[in-house]
Amino acid sequence: AQKITQTQPGMFVQEKEAVTLDCTYDTSDPSYGLFWYKQPSSGEMIFLIYQGSYDQQNATEGRYSLNFQKARKSANLVISASQLGDSAMYFCAMRPYGQNFVFGPGTRLSVLP
Amino acid sequence: ETGVTQSPTHLIKTRGQQVTLRCSSQSGHNTVSWYQQALGQGPQFIFQYYREEENGRGNFPPRFSGLQFPNYSSELNVNALELDDSALYLCASSERQGGSTEAFFGQGTRLTVV
Fold it and tell me: Is A63 left (phi over 0), alpha (psi -120 to 50) or beta?
């Protein structure tokens, strides 16, 4: 069975600092994608970054980078230079090939001025 | 902003009633999946449609049903509503099945069952 674990229910970070949100996953599928989504209070899931299971390099998208350690089955999200607008729920998700998304329980990030 | 639109954005229903939620997928996307997100939890997979056929279902009872139309838009129908059906319902569209493409989500429909 596929499972996503996010062990940090809530995180605080000072504005302009970097923060790492943890994510570990479990799957027996050899081909899968790993995703991070941001969900503000409005409810919409905003796509942040994607990492394929066969990608050799860690994904980066602007201030977001994904620290992918396949052997440890971890896919941590790093946000550099945090902004007040980064305050939201963050979900790690996995999508084995041909299947649906499996989401973790989420981490609530609060950026402090 | 994605091209995925859900309607309505909010609605209130009475226990035992039926509800239909709608989702228009992004242009060029042929796969739509639906998720239920209870308050304070991550989204849970309900089912997925690919080219008008259901091709995956989560642990939800048969009173949760759906359709996908030739233009790839989709409906989620819930019969005999229960209080626990109160949640945010999200639909996601993607270009094809698979793990190597991102999915674009709509803004969700907040359903309250009283």
Answer: alpha
**Strands A46-52 vs A107-112: parallel, antiparallel or unpaired:** unpaired
Tokens of B24: 């228009």
SS3 label, residue A74? strand
CA distance A61 to A82: 14
Band of pLDDT at residue B1, cut at 50, 70 and 90 = low
Interface probe with B: pick from A35, A68, A101, A103, most Cβ of B within 10 Å: A101
Please report, as a single letter, which amino acid is at residue B44.
Q
**A36: closest chain B residue by CA:** B102
Distance, in Å, from the CA atom of B48 to the CA atom of B57, rounded to the nearest integer, reads: 6
Q: Phi, psi at residue B8, to the nearest 5°?
A: -75, 175
Per-residue confidence in pLDDT tens, chain A, 113 aa: 789 999 999 999 999 999 999 999 999 988 899 999 999 998 889 999 999 999 989 999 999 999 999 999 999 999 999 999 999 999 999 988 777 899 999 999 999 99
